[in-house]
Write a structure and sequence with these properties.
Structural class: alpha+beta
Strand content: 15-25%
Strand order of the largest sheet: 4-3-2-1-7-6-5-8
Distance between the termini: 132 Å
Order of helices and strands: HEEEEEEEHEH
Number of helices: 3
InterPro entries: Sec3-PIP2_bind
Shape: rod-shaped
Pfam families: Sec3-PIP2_bind
Radius of gyration: 45 Å
Protein name: Syntaxin binding protein 6 (amisyn), like
Domain Exocyst complex component Sec3 PIP2-binding N-terminal: 41-133
Largest sheet: 8 strands, mixed
GO molecular function: phosphatidylinositol-4,5-bisphosphate binding
């Protein structure tokens, strides 16, 4: 079950409502007191949802839903009727952008959607839902009676929105934007996996470092054994040389003793 289905099941179905569209958003300008230091961003996700009641007369509602870190459920925070939504500002009518403003009777929210495609889907469905709701409301009021005077409900104003979001080819554009949104979600999943990869790379580096360390220990051990064998051979050669020196010294002494004996005998005979 995806996020939108979960929000609809947990937040709107229990209130006998049906969610039409939802978009994940962040504030463009954080609301905080000027005398407070800027702290870290809150650990929560915010969704702006459009829903309609199942009971007649139908009501079109805009709801702010949050999901806090460490909590698996979604929480309804604020809700407005479409009559309270005075204006939707698309910010840039010339190109796709994730920014948009929602201006209500008592507040102004400046949002940035998770992607341009997600924002365009939300604005497009919101626009056509407002048009359908307004037409249905007008038709219902017309049936009350021609004698009674009534005031037509004020429609939500859409400014700085691309014409393709409100044109006749909106269905085709909606399919295109849904494809873009799907590809964007796939990209986000890949990015999230890549962000988790450094931890795996760190473990891989640690494993490789351990392997290198083991290989170094083995190489040092082998080199130590070779050095020990060379030292043993050196000591053996030293003993052999010493024995050769001792033997040579004995031979020299023997030869010198023999030479002195021969010299003595020669001198004896000469005398």
């Amino acid at each position: 079950m995806n996020v939108h289905s979960t929000i609809n099941k947990e937040v709107f179905v229990p209130h006998d409502e049906r969610m039409l569209v939802a978009v994940e958003v962040w504030r463009r300008k954080r609301k905080r007191m000027s005398f407070l230091p800027a702290g870290p961003k809150g650990n929560y996700a915010t969704f702006i949802c459009l829903s309609v009641t199942n009971t007649r007369p139908h009501q079109l509602l805009i709801t702010k839903v949050k999901k806090f870190g460490g909590v698996s459920s979604f929480t309804r925070r604020s809700q407005w009727t479409v009559e309270q939504l005075r204006q939707v500002n698309g910010i840039n009518p010339n190109k796709d952008s994730p920014e948009f403003d929602l201006i209500f009777d008592n507040t102004v929210d400046q949002w940035v959607a998770s992607s341009s495609a997600e924002k365009c889907i939300f604005v497009q469905i919101l626009y056509h839902a407002c048009q359908t709701y307004s037409e249905g409301k007008t038709g219902t009021l017309g049936k009350v009676g021609k004698r009674k005077s009534y005031v037509l409900p004020k429609q939500t104003e859409f400014i700085n929105c691309q014409s393709k979001l409100t044109g006749d080819a909106s269905t085709v554009n909606l399919v295109i934007y849904r494809c873009k949104a799907f590809l964007n979600r796939i990209k986000n999943v890949m990015v999230a996996k890549q962000r988790r990869t450094p931890g795996n790379q760190s473990m891989h580096r640690k494993y490789r470092s351990l392997q290198v360390f083991q290989k170094m220990n083995m190489a040092l051990g082998e080199r130590g054994e070779r050095l020990t064998r060379a030292e043993d051979k050196t000591i053996e050669l030293m003993h052999t040389a010493q024995q050769f020196a001792d033997t040579a010294h004995k031979v020299t002494l023997t030869y010198r003793c023999f030479y002195n004996t021969q010299l003595f005998h020669m001198n004896f005979f000469l005398c």
